[in-house]
Amino acid sequence: MDNNQIQDSVLEKYYSTIDAIKSKNGKVILSFIGNVNSDLITSSTYLLENYFNTNFPFSKLKNKIIISCIEIIQNIMENSPKEDEIKQNSFIVVGHVGEDIILQSFNLCEKENYARLKEYIKDIESKSKAKLETLYKKNLKDYSMSKAKSGLGLYTVAINSTTKPIFEIAAITDNYYSVNITITIKNE
Amino acid sequence: MSKLFIEAKRNSPEINFDNTSGIYTIKGNSFQEDSTQFYNNILDWVEQNSFPKTTKFIFTLDYISSRSVANLYQLVEKIAEHKKSGGEVEIIWEYEADEDNILGVGEKFQTLSGLSFKFKEIAPE
Asked: What is the pTM of this model?
């Protein structure tokens, strides 16, 4: 698969994600495809804050969604390849379906990062929320001593998700893997 | 230099540290890309300007990324060191009623550091 084919396939995935929300009579609150960077975090928080202040005033949902969105964007920024033309194959979609808010992200990661990411995700998938909370605290303490990577981002996302987060990693070329994360947060 | 003031941005908090009054406040969002650098500058200032004996820390955070949580915890450990060496420490952790996440971060800091936090619920802005 060359770069153009990768772009086409990511675009197709992006639109099918949006269509899936609309087909359930849902609303797309936020959607972005392209080079995900820190400016997107700032603009997303404004947009989401306005949406939740209007539609869910006094709900605990707003903070969970905004924090999860920040973590997901930072995860994309951290794990995407450095080359601009590859990095731009990333997207994030936030949808509102019934009482559920669904956050979905897509990015590419390099083959050399695959094993580390797969291990991290496997670890998250195998643990209950209570265990993730314990691990979060342990990593926080370890980080303060070693200043190594904190690795708290996806723990935060998994803890905030009402249902088990869905992580899909698949090889798309010899050099790149696609990383697809879906979390659902219910208005409880 | 007895004071450190950093203006708030949309993605980084206002820092107002005053060694003369012994009052240290952190207020706002913290999801900046260069979070480690941001908090390292604060930690460097703390290293160079020791806390006075009596101190009061007020945290009023809104949206905070996990990276900032990890960086901020290093400051909490500095506060714990100050207490261990005989300093008087009061920590007020403010949170909005509808924000479990911020309260949860403060509770984790309290458990891990062994410091006593006063949790104060504030009205949403």
From this structure: 0.92
